[in-house]
Amino acid sequence: MDSTPLNWEALDALVIDFAKSENLIEELTPSSTSSPSPSSSSSYHSRLLIRQIRRSLEAGDVDVALDLLRLHAPFALDDHRLLFRLQKQKFIELLRKGTLEDRDAAINCLRTALAPCALDAYPEAYEEFKHVLLAFIYDKDDQSSPVAHEWSERRRFEIAGLISSVLRANLNAFDPLFPMTLRYLISIHKVFCLRQGDLSPIPDLIERLLLEERDPAAMPPENMYEASPFDEMDIQALAHAVELTRQGAVDSLKFAKGELFQAFQNELCRMKLNLSVLDELVYEYCVYRGIVDSANTSRPADVNKSGSGCCSLQNDSTVVNCCSSKFSDDEPSTDNAHMVGSPEGQLDVMITQTTDIDERYPLETAVNYEDCSTSGRHQPDSLKVELRNRNHGIGERNKRKRWRGRHEEIGFVSEVLSGSNREEAESSFMVGSEDKYDMALAMKELACRGMAAEVVEEINSMDPNFFVQNPDLLFQLKQVEFLKLVSSGDHSRALRVACSDLGPLAARDPVFLRPLKETLFALLRPNEEAFGEHLPLHSLANSIQVAIARRLGIDEPQLMKIMKATLYTHNEWFKIQMCKDRFEGMLRINSLKEVGTSLLADAASRSRSSDTSNPGSSQATMSSSSGVLEDVGSPAHVSSSDVTFDENAILKVMEFLALPRADAIHLLVQYNGNAETVIQQIFP
C-alpha cells in the first residue's frame, strides 16, 4: 500500500479547496483578502448555521435551535413531523431541569405546542404524545421505566442529526469535496479489510477520523411514499457505495427526488468525521507541502501527542481540541454561557470573528542543529541543514498562506489555555525545523522547473551520500538535464552528461540500461519534441521532496498514509466488483490516481500500466464470507474478461439475494448467466 502511486498535485487542490471553504487559511500578502468567494461564503454560512443548531440541540437548548430555524430555515418547521419531534424534545428538556417553574413551562408546552402538532404530524404521533406524558411520573434516572428512551440524552443526538440531514440537503450546504472523498475511501477501506480478512495499516487513524455512528436519514416527502420509479442500477449503486439496504437506498433517492448524486452526497455527509483530527491532518500536510507557513501560525493539537500541553485525542468520539478551540462535528457543547443573546447575533459573531494576520519574516539563516524532527529520527552527522541559494526558500515561503484554524467556533467552548500558554504550545511544533521543510520544498520547486543540474549541485553540497542511496533519483535528474540540453540544441553538452553520468549509472545497475537507450533516442527527434513531452517533472519533484524530507527526519504526513492505503483498497475493491466506480469522477478519485509515468519505466511497463488501469482487463480474486456462496461453491477466480452477462441479470441477482455485485457474478458464472436459475437454486 505504501507504494501506491498518488497524484500529489490533485490532492493539493482538494486540500486547498477544503481549507478555503472552511476558512482555515488566509493569504499572507497584504493585497489579498481572506474572505471566501461569494458562492463558498453562502455554503460556509449555512454549514455554520447547521453546526450551531446541532450543538444547541445536543446541549438540550431546543429553544435556541427553534429560534435559529425560524430566522434562517423556516421551511424545516413547516414539516410537522420535524416540529413534533422538536417540541417533544423541548418538553423533555424542560422536565429534565426539575424546577417547579420549568415543570409549569413543560405543561404549557404540552398544551400550546406539542398536542396540536401531534394531531397531524404523522399517524403514530398521537400515540407517541400520549406515551411521553409518562415522563411526568417516571424519573429520568429510572432505566427500567417505559420512557427511559425518551429521557436518554442520546435522543438529543438523534434529533440533532436528523435536523442536520434535512438542513444540509435543503440549504445545499454539503461538506467540501475533500471530506466527502475521505469518508467514501475510508468506508470502502473498512469494508475491504473486513471482507478480505486483511489488517488495515492505519486502523487507529481511520477509527479516530471516521466515526462509526451516522446521522439519521432525512425523511422523504410525504407525497413520495408510493412505489419508486427509480432505475435499479441507481438503487444498487447507491446501496453498495454507502452501505445501505435496498429500501434505505430507495428512501434516499426519494428524498433527493431521484437525483443519484445528490442522494450520494446526502448519505456521505451523514457519516461523522472528527473535525479536530481532520484539521490536524490537513495542517500537517499543508506544512509539508509548503501550502501554509509554519512560522507564526496557529497549529491544531497534534493527533499523535498526548499530555503535551494541549488536550490530546482520546479513544472516545467526543474530542475537544483545546489548543484550537474546536469541536468534532458530533460533539455536544456543555458550555451555554456563550449562547445568550439573539440567535441572529450569535451567527453573525460566529462568522465575522477573525484573527490578526501576523507579519511575514524572511527565512532565518540560523539553524538549530540540536532540533529533533517530528519523526524523532537520528540525524546523520554528514547532513548539512543549510541551503546555499536561500532565495529559493524565501521566494517559496512568500507564496504560502497562513493557517488560522476554526476560530469562528471559539464561542462554543471556554478557553482552556491562557494566551501565553497557548502561544507556547503552538510554537513548539516547528521550532528549528522550518529550514528542513524549506530545504525540501526548495528542491521540489527547482525540480518542478526542470532545473536538474541545480538540484544535483544543491543536494550534493548538503549530503554527498544522498545520491549513493538514491541512484534512481540521480538517474532521472540526469535524464532531465540531458533532455533539456537536447531540446536547446546543445548536443555536445548533452552527450557529455550521458557519458559522464548516465552511462556509469547504467553500468553499475543494469536496470538503467534500457531507459538510457530510450533517452538517447531524443537525439533523433526535433528539438521542440525532445523535452517535456513525457517528463513527469511533478512526479519526480515529489519523489525528491519525500526522499530529502525523510533524510532530514521528516516522514510523509499521515494524510498521505491514509490516501495511499485507501486508494489501494479502492482499486482492489472495484477489481473484485468487476465494474467501474460510478462516483469516482464526482469525488475526483480518478484524478488522484493519475500519476505521470516514471522516467525509468520502459515501454512494456507503460503498456502494462495502461492495461491494468482498464477495469475490464484486471484479474479479480474473491473469497466470500457469505454462507449462500459457500453452499453453492462459488469459484475462487473469475476473470472479468470472461464476464459477458446481461447487466439486468446481474442486477436481478443482486436485488433478490441482497448480494454484492461480485458475489452475484460468481453465482451467474456457475449457472451460465441465468438469473432465474440462480434464484431458484437459492430459493427452491
Automatic annotation (TrEMBL):
UniProt superkingdom: Eukaryota
Region called Disordered, residue ranges: 603-633
Coiled-coil positions: none
Ranges for domain CTLH: 46-102, 436-493
InterPro entries, per database record: CTLH/CRA, CTLH_C, Ubq-SigPath_Reg
Composition bias type Low complexity, residue spans: 603-626
Name of this protein: CTLH domain-containing protein
